[in-house]
Amino acid sequence: MQGTVDGFRYGAVTPVAAYLMACLGGALGLRCIVRSLLNEQSWKPGWLALGAASIGCGIWTMHFIAMIGFEVEETRIRYDAGLTVLSLAVAIVVVGIGVFIVGYLGAGRGALTGAGVITGLGVAAMHYLGMAAMRLDGSIQYDAFTVGLSVLIAIVAATAALWAAVTIRGFLTSLGASLVMGVAVSGMHYTGMAAVSVHLHDTTDASWAGDSPSSLLLPMLLGPLIFLVLAGVVVMFDPLLVLGEGERGRTGAARRIGASSAAEHQPGADAALTATAAAAADGPQPRGSREPYAHKW
């Protein structure tokens, strides 16, 4: 007997909430990766690890928020806690592999392709591992073509996300990229869910083990959610992350113009001091490139 599968038990609530979590994780992850590239003197492994954890937590949280809205009308659904936790670890680790590859090797064709394939396969593994954690009075079956399509979407989405991470610098452009990432990740999830069918067992004996979604998923979601909030605080309080490279450059140019303008309106030693400040705003210059002072008498 085939079960009646419904992936939208609560209407648009779970898909929208899942999409927003995927966008949040993507946005924080992209900004952390950009931070590691903007300043080579910063602790690069730490920023890359924070970015990978943010993206991984966002994808995992998206998946299980969406799964709260999944039901089979004829049977209850429970979850194995060990496999659920393992799926979170897989998401963070595989995203981390891809992030570290492009973080150190750049967005060259070979590095980007390899990192995208690894990360995409890992995201798909996280999804289907999370599905394997389900316990119900029946067996889950998958349509092979739709599963393959979902894996392809995961690889393309991962490759695009990694490309954006090492190419895009501005805050608004990173935000736009995270919105696209949210669409891709959510699309991969619901494509994978479209491949699912459930064959119910003949017996009605509810002896299968596991925790109910409300008793397992909701408490487990708190950890990644708290982590994403803390990562957001780190992003908000780091000016380099908020401004980005282009805005930082424009700010420095404005300071130099202001200092030079002040030098033109101050006589004598004050002008020389202000001109020195303007030169300092420009940063260190090669030897022999300093222009002579123009004094006004």
Write up this protein.
By secondary structure, this protein is mainly alpha-helical. It folds into two domains: 233 residues, no CATH class; 37 residues. The chain has a two-stranded antiparallel sheet. A two-stranded antiparallel ribbon has the order 3-4. Helix 1 runs parallel beside helix 7, helix 2 runs antiparallel to helix 3 and helix 2 runs parallel beside helix 4. It is elongated and about 65 Å long. The protein starts with a strand and ends in a 15-residue tail after the last helix. The C terminus is likely disordered.
SSE order and pairing:
Blueprint: E1 5-6, H1 13-38, H2 44-68, E2 71-72, E3 77-79, H3 81-105, H4 109-132, E4 134-136, E5 138-142, H5 144-167, H6 171-194, E6 196-200, H7 213-236, H8 239-264, H9 268-282
Antiparallel strand pairs: 1-2, 3-4, 5-6
Offer a few descriptive terms:
9 helices; two-stranded antiparallel sheet; mainly alpha; 297 residues; disordered C terminus
Kindly summarize this structure in a few lines:
Helices cover 72% and strands 7% of the residues.
